[in-house]
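FIELD: query
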Amino acid sequence: MGTVRRKSQRSVKQRRRIDLLISLLFWGGVALLPLFITLPYWRSTLIVAMYYTLLTMGWNLLAGYTGQFSMAPAAFGMIGAYTSALLTLQEFSPLVGILGGIGVTFGVGWLLGHLCLRLRGPYFALTTLAFAEIVRLVIANEYEITRGDLGLSVPPLYQGGELPYYYTFLLICLGVQLCLYFLMQSRIGLYLQAIREDEVAAQGRGVDVVKWKTMASALSSALCGLAGALYVHFIQLASPDMGTILQTGLIISMNVIGGMGTLVGPLIGAFLVQVTAEYVREFGFYHMIIFALLMMIVVRFFREGVYGLFLRVYHG
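FIELD: result
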């Protein structure tokens, strides 16, 4: 048994090193893309893909690694966006606004986790869905503060083109991914994955399940808040549309297509879905049918996602 366990541990460590290497190569390739892609439209599309990458990494931390299926990642992105927008409109710097967005979403995520993470399965998912809709409706109807469906105009983070935003998003995505890699290598990461596999067994081994689920909820929310707070200065408009259930469904789809519970899956899913959506948008309404078919093919034939399929082929 000891030999089998050691082999299993070596296999997991080897896979994580492969994940890290592929991630670094992926971001290295993304860093070089502006040399070949000169159209501002497609550069902006890649920035949007990196925005969704941050959201998918945040959701993946809670759902993919900890096993808690949240329906509120887009809502936390929206909270981060509005926090940053309101702070900058009060003449704070955008950096303060972004930090405020991270702090507020971390606090709200911790509170929501503390209140709801004793729930399991569909009950937690439905609670987070209700929370997301309540937040969106409050923002949409508080016209005096948020200007409702008209949205808030937000000052830009940079002047003069999309390249500064491109490399800012890239560096933040890379930094977040490195942090997630080392987190999953740590004792905390082992706790989170043990909770995902079997909460009762993890608790029986001394893991404080509620504490670590709450912490995962807070960190996941903060990552989504970071994405929204940064993105709102790129599009220069905070809108309730950022927190719709359709946005949450898109984030979840990106995770499923890329590969849940992996370091590389959110990257592949976000870029693949966003770029594909732009290519098929010219088909009008039919682009949603094409996207749905892509989702059905992945779920039917390789549930581990595109990255899981790659690993299966790589290992023979």
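FIELD: remark
Residues 12-240 form one domain.
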